[in-house]
Amino acid sequence: MTSLDDLPIRDDLRGKSPYGAPQQAVPVALNVNENTHPIPEAVAHDIVARVAAAILGLNRYPDREFTELRTALAGYLGHGLAPEQIWAANGSNEVLQHVLQAFGGPGRAALGFAPTYSMYSLLASGTGTAWIGAPRDADYELSPETAVSAVREHDPDVVLLCAPNNPTGTPLSLETIEAVADAANGIVVVDEAYHEFADEGTVSALSLLPGRPRLLVSRTMSKAFAFAGARVGYLAGDPAAIDALRLVRLPYHLSALTQAAALGALAHSGQMLAMVDEIRAQRERITTELARMGFRPYRSGSNFVLFGGVDDPHAVFAALLERGILIREIGLPGSLRVTAGTEAETTAFLEAIAVFAPVHAG
Ligand SMILES: *Cc1c(COP(=O)(O)O)cnc(C)c1O
């Protein structure tokens, strides 16, 4: 039987593993930070109508410039953004790949602050970009001083700031983002995949865009928008940076069906985001309850919680899976990550994990 080792694969890909969050059919799936609430039925009907209309035109290539979608995304983001400042692709993973294809590549380096989103190093490796995982402060926080000193030391071509950070949930201050943007010579991407879940008053890095043509802010419809299966991610930046991304995308990369579906969802953004407050409340409930049980939840500005104080993470993960509850082992010692689900899903998780609580209530 042929194995990967027998094929003339690129040397720099030898021995690498693909992204592999387990996909299992379980009653309670809290492992990949999806919005576990289905999209509202009225919105679904409008999306179906738009997709149906688009199907009649599938003999033609879609609008390569996805102008209507860029206009809708600019409207959703606000901050005075114009459609020429918007990019989109099949998930923000593809958006980030475009950024690395255009600004990274062989002989170049991308820097992030570990532990961070596992796709960054995989996208770097796929584009032949060297990956630098710089350290964080205690409790996975990232001060302006720590961040700037790594940027000065390595002078990377691309900096990837995850705000809030996955898998730790750690919010990232605007001060740190601004300090990095002003210290870096390369492109700085702020990945705001979870921005909609941030606490009230959190200011988006979009506010830092004016006057900073090397700063890019990416978002996704996969999380708060409950649209992970549609694969739509997007980015805002200077029109010149957007032009750079046009050089590396495949022509017609966003299908007419994707564009139609995304436009339908954006036309009802209020309804699509209606569950965000409820999810944030469940996140807070998880944090409070886990702390009460004696676990060590970290600060989260997202729809998930990383918690330490777990004696044997794999045993706990396996025991919960046995009960139909899938959470995430992320390879951090003594730690597990859980997504805030519906109230019932969250209750199921909290009841199952209570058995492993370091502190047993009298
Ligand atoms: C989930 C996630 C994304 C979203 O990826 P999509 O390709 O848009 O689904 C991006 N960045 C981070 C940090 C994430 O956790």
UniProtKB/TrEMBL annotation:
Source organism: Agromyces agglutinans
Reaction catalyzed: L-histidinol phosphate + 2-oxoglutarate = 3-(imidazol-4-yl)-2-oxopropyl phosphate + L-glutamate
The protein's enzyme class: transferase
Subunit structure and binding partners: Homodimer.
Segments forming domain Aminotransferase class I/classII large: 28-353
GO MF terms, alphabetically ordered: histidinol-phosphate transaminase activity; pyridoxal phosphate binding
Protein keywords: Amino-acid biosynthesis, Aminotransferase, Histidine biosynthesis, Pyridoxal phosphate, Transferase
E.C. designation(s): 2.6.1.9
Listed name of the protein: Histidinol-phosphate aminotransferase
Pathway assignment: Amino-acid biosynthesis; L-histidine biosynthesis; L-histidine from 5-phospho-alpha-D-ribose 1-diphosphate: step 7/9
UniProt-listed Pfam families: Aminotran_1_2 (PF00155)
Names of required cofactors: pyridoxal 5'-phosphate
Modified residues (N6-(pyridoxal phosphate)lysine): K223
GO biological process, one term: L-histidine biosynthetic process
Gene of this entry: hisC
